[in-house]
Amino acid sequence: MQPRMQVLQGDITTLEVDVIVNAANSSLLGGGGVDGAIHRAAGPELLKACQQVRQQQGECPPGHSVITTAGNLRAKAVIHTVGPVWHGGGEHEARLLEDAYRNSLLLAEANGYTSIAFPAISTGVYGYPKPAAAEIAVNTVSAHLIRRPQLQQVLFVCFDAETAHLYQHLLTQQGEES
Ligand code: AR6
């Protein structure tokens, strides 16, 4: 049977999955890194959708997620989540990063989707140490998938080889292939 968690090295904006997760900031109005890449690939419709959510709900705090349409992307929807900024580990960063993954999975399920791709949230501009962040990502998703059959495919999309190796190692330990 195909493993439900897989790692891919590459650009998340090119994927044909139901949902792509964006590592956004609380403003939801775009930025650099993967956020910038997703907005560039999706086109202006995505920013409009984000502005609407922003008007209705205000800022998105760390650990929370919102869903929008996906503009020109091949994905059906984008879930924008806000990871924690790394301050050394004493400011609930681990819990907030878990929340970002878990709330994105719940939102994808609530909207009836079965496949989702995550970038390595918080490990770029926000400075979260990559090994610790990868462990939280794999453990949180793996714990969530137990007894929940809806999500058939969860992809961890890594931009660099170092991050991809971290995930590959963790998935092998979990008994998942990559
Ligand atoms: N596909 C997959 N992963 C990517 C891509 C891509 N196209 N581009 C970058 N990454 P970051 P953060 C990886 O900085 O740390 C933004 O300005 C990257 O190598 O994008 O959560 C937001 O607006 C890294 O491993 O997100 C926020 O202000 C990972 O994505 C802030 O950055 C996350 O890096 C969020 O910071």
Brief rundown of the structure:
The protein has 178 residues and is of the alpha/beta class.
Summarize the main sheet. 6 strands, mixed
Overall mean pLDDT stands at: 96
Strand order of the largest sheet: 1-6-5-2-4-3
Bound molecules: ligand AR6
SSE order = EEHHEEHEHEH
The span between the termini is: 13 Å
Question: Which spans of ≥5 residues are poorly predicted at pLDDT below 50?
Answer: none
InterPro entries: Macro_dom, Macro_dom-like, O-Ac-ADP-ribose_deAcase
EC number: 3.1.1.106
Function: Deacetylates O-acetyl-ADP ribose to yield ADP-ribose and free acetate. Down-regulates ribonuclease 3 (RNase III) activity. Acts by interacting directly with the region of the ribonuclease that is required for dimerization/activation.
Catalytic activity: 2''-O-acetyl-ADP-D-ribose + H2O = ADP-D-ribose + acetate + H(+); 3''-O-acetyl-ADP-D-ribose + H2O = ADP-D-ribose + acetate + H(+)
Topology:
Blueprint: E1 5-9, E2 19-24, H1 33-42, H2 44-57, E3 65-68, E4 77-82, H3 93-110, E5 115-118, H4 130-145, E6 153-158, H5 161-173
Parallel strand pairs: 1-6, 2-4, 2-5, 5-6
Antiparallel strand pairs: 3-4
Helix pairs in contact: 3-4, 4-5
Ligand AR6 binds near residues 120 and 124.
Describe the structure in your own words.
The longest helix has 18 residues, at 93-110. The chain has helices at 33-42, 44-57, 93-110, 130-145, 161-173; strands at residues 5-9, 19-24, 65-68, 77-82, 115-118, 153-158. Helix 3 (93-110) packs parallel to helix 4 (130-145) and helix 4 packs across helix 5. Helix 4 (130-145) links the parallel strand 5 and strand 6 (153-158). Helices cover 40% and strands 17% of the residues. The relative contact order is 0.21. It has a six-stranded mixed beta sheet with strand order 1-6-5-2-4-3, sandwiched between helices. It is of the alpha/beta class and 178 residues long. It contains five helices and six strands. The mean pLDDT is 96. The site of ligand AR6 has 25 residues, from strand 2 and helix 1.
